[in-house]
Design a protein that fits this description.
It is a single chain. The protein has twelve helices and eleven strands. It is an alpha/beta fold. It has one domain: Alpha-Beta Barrel (TIM Barrel). Strands 6-5-4-3-2-1-9 form a seven-stranded parallel β-sheet, with helices on one face. Strands 7-8 form a two-stranded antiparallel ribbon. Helix 2 runs parallel beside helix 3. The longest helix has 15 residues. It is globular, with a radius of gyration of 19 Å. The two termini are 18 Å apart. The relative contact order is 0.15.
């Protein structure tokens, strides 16, 4: 089903006060929890960092089974971790995804292990960058020399039509001025800028709410988006973010899978699973059993202010905001450009 039709279905159900796990916009694979950085802010949602988690990792043939089960529902695949390029079968997963008909492959990476063939094999690359100050950034990531490598990679990727390139930044009370510089860095190179607040559990870390420097940063991001620059997430999201509003979350607009192929329900932040697809299970059957029927409620009592949850959840309930976002993207991005969220 075309993404526009999926949005219409989800919007229609939202108008009736319902949410369905059917018609996902993509599938998100955590290929591994291992990582070659030790970022100080890393929190998977249960008070732990990715590298501290342990889980069996499917071999490529296991992921092939998962992809075959997912492919009838979406042709968008998002590969992440941990650091997904530490997964030894990464190239095989990408090749199998293409053979199975996934038309859009996105890689979320810290960039340290990127190689030319990987860059050419995917449609979008999302790279972490939280400061241009090399010493401060290296301390934040707990790895000397990492920032210099990432900046070099981004300079090399700037201006490419394929893959699309996005920088993802984590907003902390201590790097607000740094992120204004990262924003300028991205705008100057035509790189899409994305950012979201650091979380403690599922709420923003202390020191952001009511912080005038945080409001200033968001104001600059909004101004850049309105000026036609490449800014991820909608105007609605950026306008609402400083208030950290509660919202009705729809976390299953994207299906997310752990390294062992198990399906997360209702979302990654709660870190609960309902069964693995590696043995050939049907994802809709697993979700139907977990939800007790064709509809579900997240029911977590939280409202994570990350664009992948907050923005998409709000847009399916705000058709005019979705239309406005489409117009912004027509202005900012070249024809045929595809990006995530």
């Amino acid at each position: 089903m075309h993404p526009a039709l999926k949005f219409l279905v989800h919007q229609g159900l939202a108008a009736l006060g319902r949410q369905t796990f059917r018609f996902p916009f993509g599938a998100f694979f955590y290929l591994t929890y291992r990582c070659n950085l030790r970022c100080r802010y890393c929190d998977v949602g249960i008070g732990r960092a990715f590298p501290t988690l342990t889980a069996p990792e499917l071999p490529p043939e296991g992921w092939r089974t998962v992809m075959a089960a997912v492919r009838p529902h979406t042709d968008v695949l998002l590969l992440s971790g941990g650091e997904p390029l530490l997964y030894p079968g990464f190239r095989q997963v990408v090749a199998d995804a293409r053979r199975l008909g996934f038309s859009f492959l996105s890689l979320n990476t810290n960039g340290l292990l990127l190689e030319p063939d990987i860059i050419d094999a995917v449609d979008a690359i999302i790279i972490s960058l939280d400061s241009l100050d090399r010493q401060r950034s290296d301390r934040l990531w707990n790895r000397a020399g990492a920032t210099d490598r990432v900046l070099g990679i981004l300079d090399g990727l700037a201006g490419r039509r394929h893959p699309s390139v996005m920088v993802n930044s984590v907003i902390l009370p201590g790097n607000l001025a740094d992120l204004e510089a990262v924003l300028d860095f991205c705008v100057a190179r035509g790189i899409t800028f994305s950012a979201g607040p650091a979380l403690a559990g599922n709420r923003p870390v202390a020191g952001l709410a009511g912080n005038p420097d945080f409001h200033r940063l968001v104001g600059r991001i909004l101004a850049a988006k309105r000026a036609g620059k490449r800014i991820a997430a909608s105007v609605d999201y950026w306008r609402a973010l400083p208030r950290f509003p509660r919202f009705s979350c729809h976390p299953l607009l994207v299906w997310r899978f752990c390294p062992d192929g198990s399906l997360l329900y209702p979302c990654s932040r709660l870190h609960r699973t309902i069964g693995t697809l590696a043995g050939g299970a049907d994802p809709v059957d697993l979700l139907t059993r977990a939800a007790g029927g064709p509809f579900f409620e997240a029911g977590c009592g939280e409202a994570c202010p990350l664009s992948c949850y907050m923005d998409t959840s709000r847009l399916v309930r705000r058709p005019l905001s979705l239309l406005r976002e489409g117009l912004y993207r027509l202005r900012a991005f070249s024809r045929g450009h595809r990006m995530v969220f």
